Amino acid sequence: MAAPILQVKDLKTQFFTDDGVVKAVNGVSFDLYPGETLGIVGESGCGKSVTALSILRLVQEPGRIVNGQILFKGDDLLELSNEEMRELRGKDIAMIFQDPLSSLNPVLKVGFQVEEAMFAHDRVNKKNALSRAIELLKQVRIPAASSRVKDYPHQFSGGMRQRVMIAMGLANKPSILIADEPTTALDVTVQAQILELLRDLNRDTRTAIIMITHNMGVVAGLCQRVIVMYAGQIVEEGPVHQIFHNPQHPYTWSLLRSIPRLDSDRHDRLLSIEGLPPDLISPPRGCKFNPRCQFRIDRCLREDPPLLDVGPDQRAACWVTMDRALKHKEPAVGG
Amino acid sequence: MADRVPLVRVENAVKYFPAGLGASVKAVDGVSFEIYTGETLGLVGESGCGKSTLGRLITQLHPATSGNIFFEGIDLTKLSGEKLRQHRRQLQMIFQDPYSSLNPRMTVGDIIAEPLENFGMLRGKAKDKRVQELLKVVGLNPYFNNRYPHEFSGGQRQRIGIARALALRPKLIVCDEPISALDVSIQAQILNLMQDLRNEFNLTYLFVAHDLSVVRHISDRVAVMYLGKIVEIADSVEIYRNPRHPYTKALLSSIPIPDPDIQAQRRVVSLAGEIPSPVNPPSGCRFHTRCPIARAPGICSETEPPLEEKGREHRAACHFSAEVPAAV
């Protein structure tokens, strides 16, 4: 395998609020390889979006990256000047967000906004920029692209706006595209179109994609590798096939059994994860998942487990792991 | 399973909202179906298809523009004032947003007791006892009755909304996207609770949601809406195995299944274009502008297909339903 294009090492991002320090990202490390699709899944507040924002150094006050390295092609992004960072954002690493409407300027034509993304990094002349903008809109499959460049965002539907955002993201041929819940605000049939587009773009342009989502189905359809986050930490990571078919962390295992599947005819009770995600100002001692875990042992209350190898390319942060847990205990479905 | 007595019968319900200059949004445009006693009927569709409006027509939160809504044989659209109010206690609602649907200045106890007071049901100690009992039923600590909504998480608030809906011992609960604002691990808690309550109190649910996997999980039958019309209605196993409307087929194929091997084999039926405006819906079959098998111009753009039997207890509104391939 080639060298990683992005290496995140022991990233810690904290928010200094009046109520205390929120440890939103608490020691996250992972690698991203050229051209791969990596999913980061978890529930609200697990730190997946803050991880993405930290990579681009877009974390806002009172948030601060307090520890770690983010190596992009070997350079630590946390060491770059603001000027150098601005040069890199949108050029080498681009990002798209959940709500395409609030990400677009309502009073500027869509074509201009795509061109603007190019002008920010390249000396392109106006005429070339326009034809490149049209080409990009075609690439993201916006019908009648050459006339639609002159339209304003409100003249586009939600799905089309997200396509425009993707076009802007691709304007400078970045090597990484970070997509933060890009389909959450969209209807399912539109979501399917956007996912197909991302899949094709990844195949054709070899842009690596980090897909941040709460939807396990989206990960299953798009990603090669997946990271599961809980309470600011990675609890499990591995190839998508392993994570879905042989999850070793009880959180991953439970999450997969708590979602209704379209292809299941049974109306059986879903497995329910009792309780709530922890407060990140004063998280529980030991494993952060232990208060909700039905497989916990005494050690889980005292020591925070590190990520350990549990299978081919698969690592989980659990003292028990599911293979062993299921040998000893019939899992409870819960109320 | 449901015994086959219709609790609700909707006949040709229509709801238009004025959209200025004499135009109107045809949110619900001629819909007929039944909800049987003891069943859960799922109502799915994408944003703007009219599913929430239809739920609100049944509880009479919106008056219908035309058509009839029978509840236990009585036409609610013909009632008003006190008579309607007395019937309405049998019909309750659970809302999507557990934040805006609870008054932040009322204690949880007062929120749950409000319906009891509105109908002069219980007073004093008996009322307090009933409130505590309801809190227990939805899995909350009965001594939380003096707390305020902001002290609870989203999932707990949704439980409070459910307790309020149960207070008057209704027969039907219209659940409008009851879990879509909640986190994944909390959704299962609420779905399980709703299933338990249905069994315990012999409830009938109309479960309105956009997520077909959730709807299929909880429902006995599923109705699919598109642009103000029901395009298909069938048993929840049947509708997945054997969809007879191309829109249902497209919707099914679009929903990601959390299994990479299955996802790799599935093929999404892509729909052309966008959902047309409900102010000016397409002629003939409303789906013909996006349908992969439409004959347009032709019968599909000229004649509106009726919702008709395509199998046992299976109705679909498509001229060419035999051509819809079975689901993967």
How would you summarize what this structure contains?
Chain A has 335 residues and is α/β, with parallel strands linked by helices. Helix content of chain A is 33%, strand content 23%.
Structure description:
The complex is a heterodimer of chains A (335) and B (328). Chain A has 335 residues and is an alpha/beta fold. In chain A, 33% of the residues lie in helices and 23% in strands. In chain A, the strands form 2 sheets. Chain A has an 8-stranded mixed β-sheet with strand order 6-7-8-3-9-10-12-11, with helices on both faces. In chain A, strand 9 and strand 10 form a beta hairpin. Chain A is globular and about 70 Å long. Chain B is α/β, with parallel strands linked by helices and 328 residues long. Helix content of chain B is 32%, strand content 23%. Chain B has helices spanning 51-58, 81-88, 108-118, 124-137, 154-166, 184-201, 212-218, 236-241, 246-254, 260-265, 299-302; strands at 6-18, 24-36, 40-44, 66-71, 74-75, 91-94, 172-176, 204-209, 221-226, 229-235, 308-311, 314-316. In chain B, strand 11 (308-311) and strand 12 form a beta hairpin. In chain B, helix 3 (108-118) packs parallel to helix 5. The longest helix of chain B is centred in the middle third of the chain and has 18 residues, at 184-201. The chains are: A alpha/beta (335), B alpha/beta (328). Chains A and B meet through helix 8, helix 9, helix 10 and helix 11 of A and helix 6, helix 7, helix 9 and helix 10 of B.
